[in-house]
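Minutes, project huddle
Topic: does the predicted pose make sense with zinc ion bound?
PN asked that the exact inputs be recorded in the minutes so nobody has to dig through chat later. Recorded below.
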Amino acid sequence: MLKYKNFAFLLVLGLLMSCGKQDGNQTAREDIAQRQINVVATTGMIGDAVRNVGGERVAVISLMGPGVDPHLYKASEGDVSRMSRADMIFYNGLHLEGKMAEIFEKMQQRIQTVAVTDRIERTRLDSPPAFAGNYDPHVWFDVTLWMEAVRHIAESLAEFDPSHAGIYQTNAARYLSSLDSLHAYVRDEINRIPENRRVLITAHDAFHYFGRAYGMEVRGLQGISTASETGTADVQELARFIVQRQIPAIFVETSVPPRYIEALQAAVKSRGFDVKIGGSLFSDAMGNPGTPEGVYLGMVRHNVDTIVGALAGK
Ligand SMILES: [Zn+2]
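Predicted holo structure (tokens), as shared on screen:
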């Protein structure tokens, strides 16, 4: 009898506890379903993707504005408090945000933290020798790789806020179709450059995936991360290459000081050849909010138009 009573008590207690837990989850879920999801994204590109997929369901803050270099970025106190108040944090991963790994680890214990590159198949990523055993993080320059990141964002939002999963699915499908058109645009435009001139020289090695996807040879003055310094030997070697191949233009990047590319231009001139600066590319940060380059689609178009304008020639 006593045994039976204990069993009944445990059963009731168990039921109560599981009810309580379910109620708790349900309250949290209803709470999210009835208000906007507060999202903190690191780069502008990620923030833009979350906005496109989340629509009115999300309020997004991007920590890194125009001209900001994510490799060197250190979170401010304000950033940390913004992150700790967020429902979800989206970051690039693959060590792009080189100085923020510890913060993400800490946040992960309490807040839904998503590396948008996590579900890209590793066979599609490159690990250049210069980046010491790590993968190249600049995935947004192969539009098809970025589409994988967008799919991951959509799945993460749907998991977090399942009652609006349909909205995320619909928005993602629409955005992915614009990205599909963008991919075709980039391919067609780059094909207008004469084959021997399809060489892209920039301040740092951000455009490797771009070159691989769209058929351009890519050379960066600095390595994959801007944390490495450029040596004079690198400048001279690249200058020699430019003269040898008679490359008409090289490019500055908005998130890297122009002095590196200017030094390269001077080194080329001292070898008796003129290479022009073909314009400014958005590499690791987008343009000002409210301008066409302030969103990913416009940023990529700007880059492609600038590259083609300078290299296609007459
Ligand atoms: Zn970079």
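Observations noted during the meeting:
- The pocket of zinc ion is lined by residues 71, 138, 204, 206, 283-284 (CB under 6 Å).
- The chain has two domains: 30-187, 194-311.
No decisions taken; revisit at the next huddle.
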